[in-house]
Write a structure and sequence with these properties.
single chain; alpha/beta; Aspartate Aminotransferase, domain 1; Aspartate Aminotransferase, domain 2; 2 domains; seven-stranded mixed β-sheet; four-stranded antiparallel β-sheet; 14 helices
């Protein structure tokens, strides 16, 4: 029966598997939800800023039965000022995941292909599959993007290249000069026929020396889309809001396939307040920097191989990952198995509060018998 309901490329999709919810684990193992720590979905352990919570509390009492601003005028104005690009170059999304889907919807179909890296964000594969486009997955180099090989993989039917920088789930980062050289080479070889989508969901966790003003690249390259999210460092994962920067021809295409009212009233408000709260962002960065050192130092002590991280998670090789993951769940600790990303011996561990990191390390050490 299902064969008659949808195209083959849709039936072949393996749905995205999110991190296990706390409530589900509590039911499964009879645990107190308050005792469970979740280090699986790269969320900000601080939550959102106090200013955001106050703004949302005040706004809740004034909500009306009206749709949100479909174009997000005020939020776009703030983002325009932040990145020094016209508001017309900004597209809002229901998280940056929404924008990845919009790019694939606008640019891919059954007669085209997309290039992405092995061990890159699963949504690149899913979005390509949903459009019926051809997959050109390029083997990873040291768990990260091999940009020269990705350049060579671009075919006559390629319309979209996905680059996650930093990358999820491996935590790797490609230096800015290499990314720019790739953009130059794509333009030189293919003109504007191939669009490059630079996914910067984890950019706020980079060390300051590693960061680049990618909005300037958007001004230089008409075939570039840069996506950002408020879900990670800003702590708004539950409200779902992200944005893309691109020149008008690409922005126009994204808006043609974007659902109306895709970012709700409270999400738009929260994003504006979060964007202005630079103190909270600095606190988040410092907490993550120290927590990353805490986890990576523990992995060294345990003799475990890990990928040096540029993000708010660490990918660690534990061997029998399914068994160790189950034992962690029994202890009320949720991390992320990544076998579906081609990494069956690894776990991805989000960086939590210091005491959460310590509890995870203690449990892992006990399970490993070290």
């Amino acid at each position: 029966m299902t064969q008659s309901l949808a195209p083959e490329h849709v039936r072949a999709i393996a749905p995205y598997q999110p991190g296990k919810p706390i409530e589900e684990l509590a039911r499964e193992f009879g645990l107190d939800p308050a005792s469970i720590i979740k280090l699986a979905s790269n969320e900000n352990p601080l939550g959102c800023s106090g200013r955001v919570r106050e703004a949302l509390s005040e706004a809740a009492g004034t909500l009306q039965g009206r749709y949100p601003d479909p174009n997000g005028f005020d939020l776009k104005a703030d983002l325009s000022a932040r990145h020094a690009v016209p508001a017309s170059w900004i597209t809002l999304g229901n998280g940056s995941n929404d924008l990845l889907e919009l790019a694939s919807l606008a640019l891919l179909d059954e007669g085209t292909s997309a290039v992405y890296a092995q061990h890159a964000f699963a949504v690149y594969r899913l979005a390509t599959q949903a459009r019926g486009a051809r997959h050109l997955m390029v083997p990873a180099r040291d768990y990260g993007h091999d940009l020269p090989a990705m350049l060579d993989a671009i075919a006559d039917d390629t319309r979209l290249v996905f680059i996650a920088n930093p990358n999820n789930p491996t935590g790797t980062h490609v230096p800015a000069d290499q990314v720019k050289a790739f953009l130059d080479a794509v333009r030189s070889r293919h003109g504007e026929r191939v669009t490059v989508l630079l996914d910067e969901a984890y950019d706020d966790y980079l060390d300051p020396a590693e960061r680049v003003d990618s909005a300037r690249w958007v001004q230089e390259y008409p075939n570039l889309i840069v996506t950002r999210t408020f879900s990670k460092a800003y702590g708004l994962a539950g409200l779902r809001v992200g944005y893309a920067l691109a020149q008008p021809p690409l922005t126009d295409l994204l808006n043609r396939v974007r659902q109306p009212f895709n970012v709700n009233v409270l999400a738009q408000l929260a994003a504006r307040v979060a964007l202005a709260d630079t103190d909270f962002l600095a606190r988040t960065y410092a907490l993550n920097r120290d927590g990353r050192a805490q986890l990576q130092g523990a992995f060294k002590s345990l003799g475990l191989d890990f990928v040096p991280s540029h993000t708010n998670f660490v990918l660690v090789r534990v061997g029998d990952a399914p068994r160790i993951n189950t034992e962690l769940l029994r202890r009320g600790i949720i991390v992320r198995p990544v076998a579906g990303d081609g990494l069956p011996q690894h776990l991805r561990v989000s960086i939590g509060l210091p005491q959460e990191n310590a509890r995870f390390v203690e449990a892992l050490s006990d399970i490993l018998g070290t």
